[in-house]
Design a protein that fits this description.
The chain has about 450 residues and is α/β, with parallel strands linked by helices. Helix content is about 35%, strand content about 20%.
Length: about 450
């Protein structure tokens, strides 16, 4: 049996009581948290497993990001200062259309590496149209937990060559789901991913929604109500608002994750609430693309599931949950008041609420006996953090002051993937060299200056 004990400075459990434990340890057996107890209750001298002592480090759950585009990591810095529809038409669609297996593989590696190094242990990824099996292969190999799915596009007025027939899209999606859903002992699952209303026929949207019933534990993942121009185009096409349209074709449910949901009217807020639809909030992306500020405090007040994702590297340009927590809080305070979206809530949105959105809260998202050991260790003993060690000071440090450089070690299901600041999965210098070569090749294929 693989047994280990971790003894940190403190444990931020993110359990129902939001307990912070001190003078305590956790025991992990075969990747599962088997015991949480006070140090005085164990004889370490006679313990027959590994013992890890981290007297200056804070233990907390790994982050759960609910909207990521691994396929876009290679495009970081290549699509700045554009609004959404131009961003897609002039940059992202041409780039994605010119991915081959090699360029997509290094893009996924770069993205997963960045996520692991900054404390994210679970993600919901929206893939791309071609070579999607590569993303699944990298997720399996890396040890990260998550969902992904081929991006489905059967209509595309913005970039007409980046689409396929409805039949081909459904056929290839089903094949991928059969191959990869619940792979790696259930660590990898399928997220069906029709891109958004303007790139999907009604038939594709509806047929894809039906597929989640055939793959237990899968999700329906799409974009919605991100941009005013997008909403006007949806209104011209269907005579409805974006979320109202989704409701009319019966794709809203507790298995649906909508990225953004910035511009929602009163009826749509009610539809989100009644259907149990999840909202993935992407603050950096929403600000950088000038898309708007989602009414997140209202959603939370109404009991709508809200979690956080960094979106993609070309619209952020980081995949750093610390940045997303800070912005998610600060951007709402001038609109409402400084008490909204407090630090403790940010910690929950980044961990347990993400797990709930993905229907994984029985497995991850908090440090509790019986859950998988998806954990991170932070060094908050630095001059840029609070000098006090109280509970509220810890939440403040993590939500408002911490950054990815404070992540020391990360484990997924009891296995170290980052240790003492070293990435145990990928070699950074090798990734950089490969990434530069593959990006130049892709840009030559795309013929974009």
């Amino acid at each position: 049996m693989n047994r280990k004990i971790i003894i940190p400075k403190e444990i931020i459990t993110v359990n129902n009581s939001m307990e912070i434990l001190r003078d305590s340890f956790i025991e992990i057996e075969n990747g599962i948290i088997s015991r949480i107890d006070k140090l005085k209750n164990i004889d370490l001298n006679n313990y027959d497993g590994e013992i890890f002592r981290f007297q200056n480090l804070t233990l907390m759950p790994g982050f759960v990001q609910t909207h990521i585009h691994l396929c876009q990591t290679l495009f970081r810095g290549l699509a700045d200062d554009l609004q959404l529809l131009d961003w897609l038409q002039k940059r992202i669609f041409p780039y994605e259309n010119n991915h081959n297996a090699n360029s997509l593989r290094i893009s996924a590696q770069l993205g997963i590496s960045e996520l692991l190094m900054s404390g994210t242990t679970t993600l919901l990824d929206m893939g791309t149209m071609n070579h999607q099996e590569v993303v699944f292969e990298e997720m399996i190999e890396s040890g990260i937990r998550g969902f992904s799915g081929k991006c489905m596009i059967d209509e595309n007025d913005l970039f007409p060559t980046f689409k396929e027939t409805t039949e081909d899209s459904l056929k290839s999606t089903i094949q991928l789901a059969e191959n990869f859903h619940n792979s790696a002992n259930g660590r990898i699952k399928y997220g069906f991913a029709p891109r958004f209303v303007l790139s999907c026929s009604e038939g594709l949207m509806k047929e894809t929604s039906n597929l989640i019933n055939d793959f237990d534990g899968s999700l329906y993942h799409t974009h919605s109500s991100e941009n005013i121009g997008e909403i006007k185009a949806v209104r011209r096409k269907y005579g409805k608002e974006n979320i109202e349209y989704f409701d009319s074709i019966n794709v809203l449910s507790e298995k649906t994750v909508l990225a953004h949901a910035i511009h929602a009217n009163e009826k749509e807020v009610d539809l989100l609430k009644k259907s149990g639809t999840r909202v993935a909030h992407c603050p950096s992306s929403n600000l950088k693309l000038g898309s708007g500020i989602a009414q997140i405090p209202r959603y939370i007040e109404e009991g709508i599931s809200v979690s956080i994702g960094a979106d993609g590297a070309p619209c952020n340009n980081n995949l750093n949950m610390f940045t997303e927590m800070r912005l998610a809080s600060l951007m709402q305070k001038p609109i409402h008041n400084p008490t909204v979206m407090d630090a403790k809530l940010m910690i929950k949105l980044a961990t347990i609420e993400g797990a709930k959105a993905l229907h994984l809260s029985h497995e991850i998202g908090s440090i509790e006996v019986g859950k998988k050991a998806d954990l991170q260790l932070l060094n908050l003993e630095k001059a840029n953090h609070s000098m006090l060690d109280g509970d509220e000071n810890l939440y403040s440090s993590i939500a408002y002051a911490a950054d990815k450089s404070d992540v020391v070690s990360v484990m997924i299901e009891g296995k170290w993937v980052v240790k003492n600041g070293i990435n145990l999965v990928y070699d950074n210098s090798q990734m950089m060299a490969t990434g530069k070569v593959e990006l130049h090749k892709l840009l030559n294929r795309a013929k974009i200056n």
